[in-house]
Specification:
The complex is a heterodimer of chains A (235) and B (85). Chain A is 63% helix and 3% strand. Chain A has 235 residues and is mainly α. Chain A has 2 domains: 19-102, no CATH class; 118-231, no CATH class. Chain A has a two-stranded antiparallel ribbon with strand order 1-2. In chain A, helix 6 (118-133) runs antiparallel to helix 7, helix 7 packs across helix 11 and helix 8 crosses helix 11 (219-231). With 85 residues, chain B is mainly α. Chain B is built from 5 helices and no strands. The chains are: A mainly alpha (235), B mainly alpha (85). At the A-B interface, helix 2, helix 3 and helix 7 of A face helix 2, helix 3, helix 4 and helix 5 of B.
């Protein structure tokens, strides 16, 4: 039976490539990692909308009126918000200029190395993703997202403090959250393999299909993917 | 700041459906974006109607991928900026 290997580690380029090509490659990897397929037509429409809006509003031009500048910012924020709202998150990665304001504030904070072993982190990450996947879908989208965020922040707190349990309390910087999201991202493949496959490191086409369906329909897992992409922009 | 914005929207004469759409979309806004929107609404309260229409049309455009609607939205934005600021 044909089996599709699900990538669980970063894909390394085989040859020397330019920064621009590297960026494109990175996005391709993200697409595979996230298991999300956005129709080409939709991606094209979103991308065109964002760039044409920037052009029409002359975003890059120096603006003498402060209020006009703010109004332009509001219009672009609405566009970005609607794209995120309608679930087409891939455009976020492809149109960084229009989404600069949506990204978390850049803050350089020294992150302490986690006291948890790699194995403990991996186990905790898979458990966290499972918790996200199991959030009841009967609640409103907003409520599901709030619960998802609290699981993600709890995971980040556990990674940072080295303590495992629901009552871990520690202050989190955006960099801490970014680190936690990276660990979660690295373990999405493992979660898929354990929950949708037979934990052999491979997924059949059928298993992959079920996993993708889950990723595309679960509000909380979509929130996770959205946060992974948002926080990737942090240094 | 988000609460202040929600209060303004809640007290407006928008329909409940329109208010809910705002509440959903501002969940994605950063503090900076909320602050920009608050300032625009304070200086130009009438903007809320245009921005709401803009928000509704964008939602429809991104779902239907209607190019004609996209042109209409962008034209409207240009006119709005020219006439109000």
């Amino acid at each position: 039976m044909f089996k599709e290997k699900f990538p669980t580690s970063p894909i390394k380029p085989e040859k020397e490539i330019s920064p621009k090509e590297k960026e494109v490659e990175k996005r391709e990897i993200e697409t595979v990692d996230l298991g999300i397929e956005i129709p080409e037509e939709e991606r094209k429409f979103n991308k065109e909308f964002v760039s044409e809006e920037e052009e029409v509003l002359e975003i890059k031009k120096e603006e003498p009126s402060r209020l006009k500048k703010l109004a332009k910012k509001v219009l672009c924020s609405i566009t970005a918000g609607v794209i995120l709202l309608t679930g087409t998150i891939k455009t976020y990665a492809e149109s960084p200029s229009a989404f600069q304001e949506m990204k978390p504030k850049k803050e350089v904070v020294e992150v302490m190395e986690s006291k948890l072993s790699a194995e403990q982190q991996e186990k905790l990450a898979v458990q966290t993703i499972e918790n996200l996947a199991n959030i009841p879908e009967g609640q409103s989208r907003y409520a599901q997202e709030q619960v998802a965020k609290s699981y993600i922040y709890r995971f980040a707190a556990q990674i940072k403090s080295g303590e495992i349990g629901p009552e871990v309390k520690t202050s989190l910087s955006p960099t801490d959250v970014k680190k936690a999201l990276e660990i979660l991202n690295q373990n999405i493949g493992k979660f898929a393999d354990q929950k949708f496959g037979n934990a052999d490191g491979n997924l059949t086409m059928e298993e992959m299909k079920k996993f993708r369906e889950k990723m595309q329909t679960s509000v909380s897992l979509k929130k996770l993917l959205e946060m992974i992409i948002m926080y990737k922009s942090l240094p | 700041m988000q609460e202040e914005l929600k209060n303004i929207i809640e007290k407006s004469n928008l329909s409940q459906e329109q208010k809910n759409l705002w509440f959903e979309v501002i969940e994605y806004f950063t503090e900076d974006q909320i602050s920009a929107l608050l300032e625009v609404l304070k200086e130009s309260p009438q903007s809320l109607n245009f921005l709401t229409e803009n928000l509704e049309k964008k939602k429809e455009a991104f779902i239907t991928r209607d190019k004609k609607l996209k042109e209409e939205i962008l034209k409207g934005e240009k006119e709005y900026l020219q006439q109000n600021f």
